[in-house]
Specification:
The chain is α+β, with helices and mostly antiparallel strands. It folds into 2 domains: 72 residues, no CATH class; 206 residues, Fumarylacetoacetate hydrolase, domain 2, CATH 3.90.850. Helices cover 18% and strands 27% of the residues. It is built from 8 helices and 17 strands. The strands form 3 sheets. Strands 1, 2, 3, 4, 5, 6, 7, 9, 10, 12 and 15 form an 11-stranded mixed sheet that branches. A 4-stranded antiparallel sheet has the order 14-13-16-17, covered by helices on one side. A two-stranded antiparallel ribbon has the order 8-11. A hairpin with a 3-residue loop joins strand 16 and strand 17. The N and C termini lie close together (10 Å). This is Fumarylacetoacetate hydrolase domain-containing protein 2A.
């Protein structure tokens, strides 16, 4: 379900991001729909708030889904790099619908209590091992789609997160080799029903984390070579324009390499898998008094160099 009022949403996005596009450095892969196309296409976002280059029009042999694109590794990435340098026609942003950069991955892995400042906010010790939980892939929606308030919960909360997208299959991956398995990074919103997370269902987190629409992703998969340092990025969340979370990914307890090494001890990681790396302080449940999302709210989750996702609560 898409957010109504695309013009106002586009205005919000353009105001939030005004960084210039550097064509030979930044590769921003997207999945999108357009009225003249049959089904989803892969594209390149031409700047953080720019239009879209249609990769499938440039090379019709390319897959039309991100997971299949990543599975083919360097062969497809090299085509995307050529397209980026070719100065191809750009579809206007107003004429396309952005999907999540990855849809229906094999798994969505999430990390709890992974920011030092978030641990301090809760007055809990910093974990000595990563705390792992999951969302179902059916919770994923696009960067500008609506978040549906479920009737089962009265305590829906926000959590901005850096997401890692896996590009190469692996098991028992060493931390020193972990970045070989990373395709890139994107912005995630780990929407959370706190009543179900911390009190219901035996206090297991899964149900509270995985309602439909509880994992907006996007706007683009920014390839790892396009990000100067994923562990030194400003990260923030705004609700109705008010800053609720503001931190830096340098506060992460376990960095990307450590998380990949840890998770791959237990499960095989596949191209397209998404790892949500935890959230900084400022979530609604720890405010005094607690604040939760309500109908009509607009949430903006933003990470430096990656972009901003904007989701209306309905």
């Amino acid at each position: 379900m898409l957010v109504s009022g695309r013009k106002s949403l586009l205005t919000t996005l353009l105001q939030a991001q005004k960084q210039p596009f550097q064509p030979h450095r930044h590769m921003r892969l997207v999945q999108f729909l357009a009225p003249h196309l049959a089904g989803p296409h892969l594209g390149l976002e031409s700047g953080i708030a720019g239009g879209v280059i249609d990769l499938n029009a440039y090379d019709p042999t390319l897959p039309t889904t991100m997971t299949q694109f990543l599975e083919q590794g360097e062969a497809t990435l090299s085509v995307a790099r050529r397209a980026l340098a070719a100065q191809l026609p750009v579809l206007p942003r107003s004429g396309v619908t952005f999907l999540a950069p990855v849809t229906r991955p094999d798994k969505v892995v999430c990390v709890g209590l992974n920011y030092v400042d978030h641990c301090k906010e809760q007055n809990v010790p910093v974990p000595k091992e990563p705390i792992i939980f999951s969302k179902f892939a059916s919770s994923i929606v696009g960067p500008y789609d609506e978040i549906l308030l479920p009737p089962e919960s009265q305590e829906v909360d926000w959590e901005v997160e850096l997401a890692v997208v896996i590009g190469k299959k692996g098991k028992h991956i060493q931390a020193t080799d972990a970045m070989v398995h990373v395709a890139g990074f994107t912005v995630a919103h780990d929407v959370s029903a706190r009543d179900w997370q911390v009190r219901r269902n035996g206090k297991q987190w899964l149900l509270g984390k995985t309602f439909d629409t509880f994992c907006p992703l996007g706007p683009a998969l920014v390839t790892k070579d396009s990000v100067a340092d994923p562990h030194n990025l400003k990260i923030c969340c705004r609700v109705n324009g008010e800053v609720m979370q503001s931190s830096n990914t340098n506060q992460m307890v376990f960095k990307t390499e450590q998380l990949i090494a840890w998770v791959s001890r237990f499960v095989t990681l596949y191209p397209g898998d998404v790892i949500l790396t935890g959230t900084p302080p400022g979530v609604g449940m720890f405010r005094k008094p607690a604040i939760f999302l309500k109908k009509g709210d607009e949430v903006q989750c933003e990470i430096e160099e990656l972009g901003v996702i904007v989701n209306k609560v309905v």
